Amino acid sequence: MGERVNNDMVAVPAGPVTLSDRRTERRWTVEVASFRMSAVPVTQEWYAKVTGEYPSTARGGRLPVEGVSWWDAIRFCNELSRREGLTPAYEVRSDGGAADWDTTAAGYRLPTEAEWEHACRAGGTGPRYGPLDEIAWYRGNADDRIHPVGGKQPNAWGLYDMLGNSWDWCWDLYDAEVYGTYRVLRGGGWSDEHWSCRASVRRRSHPTFRIDDVGFRVARSVTGAE
């Protein structure tokens, strides 16, 4: 079993990924540029170090931070960038109702959902990157609770907890014409059935939504990456 507990950023190679939506029966292919993604979800310890806040229902430094909204994740990314002397990726508009992404910025950000799925699949084409019990905490094995990051096997690119444990906020709007400002969630969580813990599953929620199985991980564009 893995024991990745630090804040390493993993290099994700460029490549195509085909996304699908069961609701609309739509499929589309995206060419993903190389980028970096945190090896594990943002932990409570990491979140508190950057923000001074402990929003999670369950408590533990190595647990994924949960109970955080999409807006909380955006603010974390910007504050982490400032602390490391990087140009923040996001400009939050003065009314606080929207954020603009500067794609040339070297700072931390949320992955797009295409980046997320490409990183999750790690070159594979199946619904998961390994046997579910070996790679994920979900309803069938989580004992009704969230677990420390890095406790299951990583995928081929060294990313842990891409499926199960906590859902990840992504940058993208889910479907603006139908759901307005709702943002994409990916990955499944500790309380989800096995069918939600697949690389292709898309979920959505309002950007102010907070619950005990939703967190996030961070990414950086290769531009300015170390």
Give keywords:
globular, three-stranded antiparallel β-sheet, four-stranded mixed β-sheet, disordered N terminus, 5 helices, alpha+beta, 226 residues, 17% helix
Topology, pairings included?
Blueprint: E1 9-12, E2 15-21, E3 26-32, E4 35-38, H1 44-51, H2 70-83, E5 90-92, E6 99-101, H3 113-121, H4 132-135, E7 167-173, H5 176-179, E8 183-186, E9 202-205, E10 214-215, E11 219-221
Parallel strand pairs: 7-10
Antiparallel strand pairs: 1-4, 2-3, 4-11, 5-6, 7-8, 8-9
- The fraction of residues assigned to DSSP E strands is 15-25%
Characterize the biggest β-sheet: 4 strands, mixed
User: Termini, distance in Å?
Assistant: 28 Å
Oligomerization state: single chain
Task: Sum up the overall morphology in one term.
Answer: globular
Strand order of the largest sheet: 9-8-7-10
Q: Classify the helix fraction into a percent range.
A: 10-25%
Rg, alpha carbons: 16 Å
Low-confidence stretches: 1-5
Question: How many helical elements?
Answer: 5
Q: How would you characterize the overall build of this protein?
A:
The structure is a single chain. By secondary structure, the chain is an alpha+beta fold. The protein has five helices and eleven strands, in the order ββββααββααβαββββ. The chain has helices at 44-51, 70-83, 113-121, 132-135, 176-179; strands spanning 9-12, 15-21, 26-32, 35-38, 90-92, 99-101, 167-173, 183-186, 202-205, 214-215, 219-221. The strands form four sheets. A four-stranded mixed sheet has the order 9-8-7-10, covered by helices on one side. The protein has a three-stranded antiparallel sheet with strand order 1-4-11, with no helix packed on it.
